[in-house]
Specification:
By secondary structure, this protein is mainly β. It has 4 domains: 293 residues, no CATH class; 190 residues, no CATH class; 93 residues, Immunoglobulins (Immunoglobulin-like), CATH 2.60.40; 81 residues, Immunoglobulin-like, CATH 2.60.40.1930. Helix content is 14%, strand content 37%. It contains 10 helices and 38 strands. The strands form 9 sheets. The chain has an 8-stranded mixed sheet, with no helix packed on it. Strand 20 and strand 21 form a beta hairpin. The longest helix has 21 residues. The two termini are 40 Å apart.
Length: 698
């Protein structure tokens, strides 16, 4: 009954529902407090919360290992106590990030119908959760017309990302002010080629900068038209912006065969067969790449008098990157608090549940407050902000319109907005893009579907959250979290830098006084510990960059010694880096973090040739393969190894592995990257080339 009721409301658009019985959105959120007891054997995690007397049953506790379990499973049923204070404890293992949920339900009579509401609280918990040598890979996808004017800002961003432990690359793509299917495809080809060249086990993000071509898709499924996610049918039907297209590696499953123009008002939404705008309402396969965009094209309301649109666009981009850099480096901080401005208080979907559920695990329940968007964010700042209200492309009732945003600042790092029309973010003077231009670092349309940000307390990026929401199951009843309308639809997008994370006060200090010297065929490294408590230091990662090559991690796990010997035979200018791996306290427990790198360079001299090249062994299972190919590489000496998937005619189809191997390493690659057929794996290392057959079946 509840789901049918919600669908009916969706079909009439985002207007206020006339009822006095709808509960506040805060009632469906269960803030959880986390306590970790390392003194017990084994270590224990305790969750504490308040039981709502209106709940129909004891609270259910669910848990999963966040990195490996696809679904939650039940770990406890907790009855309320006499004072409604509830807790649940269970043993935990170091190094594992657990995700907990506490759920219950209650009913309300609304317009003479009984409606069931699900309440939930989520949190991530861990101790000594490891961090790999790199945070991941990021591709800066730059509009060709802004690459030169923003060269300094992009170089600064690249250097800062590198300092934080990202592998950064850049590609220049065509500017596309109007929809351009060829530019979309060229951009997709660039992103996919970059992804396939790298280590497929590393998280991958693409940051679209400037007027990068905007893909469009929707809204057609299973032989019928689907109402738009904001419910305004037919004027807002048709194709919506679909940046998620760039994150789906496969081209199969994208359809472009229907006509959807009847009653559609905005030209860009009109969908015709073969026009390059896809028909899908759901992503045909999961996204593999985190996508974020900063695009200030077509915001004439923000163009100052005496300036032209192009100058204003560049100025807004410069301002954004200055704010991004200031936040990353700590020169710009935000109040450790979150704002919620809910102007849909009588709407049974309770859109603001996103804020009430997401913010307490990060900033604490006491720091989440009901406040007005303006003037609060114009006169003070918040780390997070959520606002919703009946909207247009350029306004949200109770929040403000583009005129308000043009004269005021949005002093919040991570924002979510929701209302009619402006979820179609490629529109002129769009409210979400204006919010980012006027101060926010990121913005998402959270309500249909609801976004859940709680994993950011454990160090995940806002791009990780976007990828998670885009990959939600589209079918109600199969959702990992409390389901919401339009989950898994193609319109879900992130505006802003996808690599941004919550910046906590604790920083991990880099090593001191890195010394590098040559001893025959070996390079000896030594350094001093940072000025930080010894028990907070886990160890160190060591990295090397060869002449003309790219940086590789020489230590797959942190080492505890303050010295390292590199026995790899090199000649020329070689750069070495060392990063501290430290323990930092988070609301979700104790997480490992990387420090910035300390580096030193040495020019190595000629050395006597070694006795032999390293011996390489490669195990491939299964073979034939249909889903994933597991590779086990073993070497007799530490060495760089690259494994490419090559067609029988010699065409390189993808990169299965590219990195430094010490002794043995196991990895995997997605067999769906190539069509079914017979290939060979080409293994290259230290001048050697070895091949192994590979068969892909479907």
């Amino acid at each position: 009954m509840r789901y049918r009721r919600i669908v009916l409301l969706c079909s009439i658009g985002l207007i206020a529902a006339a009822t006095a019985q709808v509960p506040p959105a805060s009632k469906v959120a269960i803030p959880l407090r986390v306590i970790i007891d390392r003194a017990s054997n084994p270590p224990q995690v305790t969750l504490r919360w308040k039981h709502d007397p209106d709940f129909q049953a004891p609270d259910t506790v669910l848990m999963r290992q966040r990195q490996s379990d696809p679904q939650f499973y039940r770990v406890g049923i907790v009855p309320p106590s006499s004072n409604d204070s509830v807790e649940f404890s269970m043993p935990m293992s170091d190094g594992i990030l657990y995700e907990f949920a506490v759920v219950n339900s209650f009913t309300r009579s609304i317009n003479n119908q009984t409606v069931l509401f699900t309440a939930a609280g989520y949190t991530c918990v861990g101790y000594d959760v490891p961090v790999p040598p790199y945070r991941g890979r990021v591709l800066l996808v730059v509009d060709s017309t802004v690459a030169t004017p923003l060269a300094q800002e992009i170089a600064q961003l690249t250097a800062q990302l590198d300092r934080e432990g990202w592998r950064v690359e850049q590609t220049i793509v065509p500017r596309a002010e109007q929809f351009d299917a060829r530019a979309v495809q060229r951009t997709k080809d660039s992103i996919r080629s970059w992804y396939n060249r790298g280590n497929l086990d590393e998280p991958a993000s693409a940051f679209l900068i400037g007027r990068v071509a905007v893909p469009y898709s929707g809204l057609y499924y299973n032989g019928q038209y689907v109402p738009p996610p904001d419910g305004h049918n037919p004027d807002h039907r048709g194709a919506w912006p679909c940046d998620g297209y760039y994150g789906v590696l496969s081209e199969s499953g994208w359809n472009d065969a229907i006509t959807d123009t009847a009653g559609v008002v905005r030209q860009e939404n009109r969908n015709l067969p073969g026009d390059g705008k896809f028909d899908n309402v759901f992503f045909p396969s999961p996204l593999s790449i985190r996508i974020g965009r900063v695009d200030f094209y077509n915001l004439p309301r923000l163009v100052p008098q005496g300036s032209n649109a192009s100058e204003a666009e560049i100025a807004m981009l410069r301002d954004y990157f200055a704010r991004d850099y200031a936040y990353r480096t700590g020169s710009r901080s935000y109040r450790w608090a979150a704002l919620i401005d809910d102007n849909f208080p009588t709407y049974p979907e309770l859109f603001a549940r996103s804020g009430w559920t997401s913010f307490p695990p990060i900033v604490g329940a006491a720091n989440v407050r009901v406040e007005k968007w303006f003037p609060t964010l114009d006169t003070s700042d918040r780390l997070f902000a959520y606002g919703c209200g009946a909207g247009s492309y350029t306004s949200a009732n109770g929040i403000g319109n583009v005129g308000d945003f043009a004269t005021r600042r949005v002093n919040a790092a991570f924002t979510m907005l929701f209302g009619s029309y402006f979820g179609d973010w490629d529109s002129q003077n769009n409210l979400m893009r204006v919010a980012v231009a006027r101060g926010a670092l990121t913005c998402s349309w959270s309500g249909r579907p609801v976004w859940y940000l709680h994993p950011m307390a454990a160090g995940e990026t806002i791009g990780d959250i976007a990828l998670m929401v885009q990959n939600f199951s589209p079918f109600v009843g199969q959702s990992l979290y409390v389901s919401s309308f339009a989950q898994g639809w193609v319109h879900v997008a992130l505006l802003g830098d996808p690599t941004l994370r919550v910046r906590f006060d604790q920083e991990v200090a880099p090593p001191r006084s890195l010394a590098v010297r040559q001893d025959g065929r070996r390079i000896e490294l030594s350094w001093e510990t940072p000025f930080t408590p010894a028990d907070s230091i886990v160890g160190y990662y060591v990295y090397r960059t060869l002449p003309g090559g790219r940086e590789v991690a020489l230590t797959p796990e942190p080492i505890t010694e303050t010295r390292f010997t590199d026995s790899y035979r090199v000649e020329g200018a070689v750069r070495y880096r060392v990063r501290t791996v430290g323990r930092v306290q988070r609301p979700s427990g104790v997480i490992w973090e990387l420090s910035p790198a300390t580096e030193s360079q040495i020019v190595t001299t000629s050395v006597e040739k070694g006795p032999e090249n390293p011996r390489i062994a490669l195990e491939v299972v299964p073979n034939p393969a249909s889903d994933y190919v597991k590779l086990a590489l073993e070497v007799s000496l530490p060495t760089m190894v690259r494994v490419d998937i090559v067609a029988l005619d010699g065409r390189q189809m993808g990169c299965a592995f590219d990195g430094y191997v010490v002794d043995r390493i196991a990895t995997s690659c997605d067999a769906h990257l190539v069509p079914a057929g017979t290939y060979f794996l080409r293994i290259q290392s230290a001048g050697q080339v070895i091949t192994r057959p590979l068969v892909i079946v479907r």
